[in-house]
Design a protein that fits this description.
The chain folds into two domains: 155 residues, Rossmann fold (3-Layer(aba) Sandwich), CATH 3.40.50.1220; 79 residues, SIR2/SIRT2 'Small Domain', CATH 3.30.1600. It contains ten helices and nine strands. A seven-stranded parallel β-sheet has the order 1-9-8-7-2-3-4, sandwiched between helices. Strand 3, helix 7 and strand 4 form a beta-alpha-beta unit. Helix 8 packs parallel to helix 9. The protein is elongated. Bound molecules: adenosine-5-diphosphoribose. The site of adenosine-5-diphosphoribose (APR) has 23 residues, from helix 2 and helix 10.
C-alpha cells in the first residue's frame, strides 16, 4: 500500500485505461460542504446526542417526535449546504470514463445536486418520507410533529436506513455487482467502519481491481488498499480530474 499526498503517475495511467470505475463515498465527501460527518461531534443542541442512539427504529418507536426534530434539523442543515468541488469532480469523472458506478453511504443528495446521475443510495435519502408500517415511500405534506401516512394512518419516518436495518435490495445487489466487475475501486471519505458498505472494497480487491482510498486520515482498511491518498476529497478529486484531462 502506497500512502501518498500526491496522485501517482501510475495511478493516472490506470484510471485512463479503466473500463469500469466503482466509487464509494462516505460522510467525508460532504464534510467540506459543512455537513458534519457521523463520527464528528454533533453541534448545537444535538451535541448531547449520539447519532447511533437516534438513527434506529427503536429510537423512533420510543420517541418519534424527538427523531423527527433531529431529522428536520439535518434536513435544514443539508438544504443550506452546497455540493463541493469533490462532488462536482465525481460528476465530471463520469463523463471521462466508459462506465462509472457511484455508490454513496450519504443521504444528503449532494451528489445528485452536483450533477451525478443514477446515484446508488446505499443508506436511503434524508428527504424521502416512508410509511413505518407499509415500508413504502409516501408523499405527505402535513408538517405535523410526526407526519402520518395518507394511506394507512401510521407514523411516517425519514426514508433513511437505520442501524440494524437491511440495505435496500436493489442498492445492495447493484453495488456489489459493480464492485466485483470494476477495474478500479475508489473509496472516498469513509471510515470503512460500517458494513456491508465497507465490504465493497474487499470484494473489488478480491476481484483484482486496483483499490484506492482518499481520506485525510488512515482507516482500519487503509493497509488493504493499493493507494491511500492522504488528503481532503475537495482537493484530491479535482486534481485527479485535472490529471486525467491534461
Ligand atoms: N475528505 C475526505 N475524507 C474526509 C474529509 C474530507 N474533507 N473529512 C473527513 N473525512 C473522513 C474522515 O477521516 C472519516 O474517515 O471521512 C470519514 C467519515 O467517517 P464517518 O463519519 O464514519 O462516516 P461514514 O464512513 O460515511 O459512516 C458510514 O455509518 O454512521 C453510519 O449510516 C452512517 O452512512 C454512515 C455510515
Amino acid at each position: 500500500m502506497a500512502v501518498t499526498t500526491r496522485i501517482p503517475t501510475a495511478l493516472i495511467a490506470t484510471l485512463r485505461g479503466a473500463q469500469h470505475i466503482c466509487v464509494l463515498t462516505g460522510a467525508g465527501i460532504s464534510a467540506e460542504s459543512g455537513v458534519p460527518t457521523f463520527r464528528d461531534a454533533q453541534s448545537g443542541l444535538w451535541e448531547k446526542y449520539d447519532p447511533l442512539d437516534l438513527a434506529t427504529p427503536e429510537a423512533f418507536l420510543r420517541d418519534p417526535k424527538l427523531i423527527w426534530r433531529w431529522y428536520r434539523w439535518r434536513r435544514e442543515l443539508v438544504a443550506k449546504a452546497q455540493p463541493n468541488p469533490a462532488h462536482q469532480a465525481l460528476a465530471t469523472f463520469a463523463t471521462l470514463v466508459p462506465r462509472l458506478t457511484l455508490v454513496t453511504q450519504n443521504v444528503d443528495g449532494l451528489h445528485q445536486r452536483a450533477g451525478s446521475t443514477d446515484v446508488i443510495e446505499f443508506h436511503g435519502n434524508l428527504f424521502d418520507d416512508r410509511c413505518f408500517a407499509e415500508d413504502r415511500i409516501v408523499d405527505c405534506t402535513a408538517d405535523a410533529d410526526v407526519p402520518i401516512c395518507p394511506g394507512c394512518g401510521s407514523n411516517v419516518r425519514p426514508g433513511v436506513v437505520w442501524f440494524g436495518e437491511a440495505i435496500p435490495e436493489q442498492a445492495l445487489d447493484r453495488s456489489f455487482a459493480a464492485a466485483a466487475d470494476c477495474d478500479v475501486f475508489l473509496s472516498i471519505g469513509t471510515s470503512s467502519l460500517v458494513f456491508p458498505a465497507a465490504g465493497l472494497a474487499e470484494v473489488a480487491n478480491e476481484a483484482g481491481a486496483v483499490v484506492i482510498e482518499v481520506n485525510p486520515n488512515p482507516t482500519g482498511m487503509s493497509a488493504g488498499f493499493d493507494y491511500a491518498i492522504a488528503g481532503n476529497a475537495g482537493s484530491v478529486l479535482p486534481e485527479l480530474i485535472d490529471s486525467l484531462t491534461d
